Amino acid sequence: MRVASGQAGHVVFFKLEEGSDLLTSMREHVEAEGIRSGFLACIGALSRARLGYFLGQGKYKAIEVQGPLEIASCMGNISVGPEGETIIHAHICVCDGEGRAYGGHLLEGCVVSPTAEVAVIELLGALLTRKLDAKTGLKLLSP
């Protein structure tokens, strides 16, 4: 078992604006803060969700849900990919006005409406990295 151990560093809260892409905006804010490793959580609402269900061999089935939708839960981690890129790996659960829940891997295409509130805790003293795994076709965490 590989372990990354560190301390909580910079703690950042930010609000995303209506119409923004949830995943893209989170990545932009994290990069602007210079955070390379950490944990994030989000609540808010969406006008549209785009979730991924892992099929294997690096492929996802995209599930699109029209809103309005509440973000019941969204959490994930921040790491550095093989080419030095910032990777946000997050899962999200949204629910509609009838209480039906839809969940999966957070994909680009989730449209914030009217807002989303994000909390980020930076990991200091360790760097979370990802490496391409030939078996799954995924960039897996390699602490």
What are the SSEs and their pairings?
Blueprint: E1 7-16, H1 22-32, E2 38-56, E3 59-80, E4 86-95, E5 101-106, E6 111-124, E7 130-133, E8 138-141
Brief overview:
By secondary structure, the protein is mainly beta. Helices cover 8% and strands 62% of the residues.
Features:
two-stranded antiparallel sheet; 1 helix; 143 residues; 60s Ribosomal Protein L30, Chain: A; 8% helix; mainly beta
The N- to C-terminal Cα distance equals 10 Å
Structural class, by secondary structure, is mainly beta
**Whole-number tally of structural domains:** 1
Quickly name the level 1 CATH class: Alpha Beta
Stated plainly, the CATH topology is called 60s Ribosomal Protein L30, Chain: A
Summarize model confidence as the mean pLDDT.
95
Number of helical stretches of at least 4 residues: 1
Task: Output the radius of gyration.
Answer: 15 Å
Helix content: under 10%
Principal-axis shape equals globular
The CATH architecture can be given as 2-Layer Sandwich
Please report the total strand number as a whole number. 8
Unreliable sequence segments: none
Tell me the strand percentage band.
over 45%
User: CATH superfamily name?
Assistant: Hypothetical protein, similar to alpha- acetolactate decarboxylase, domain 2
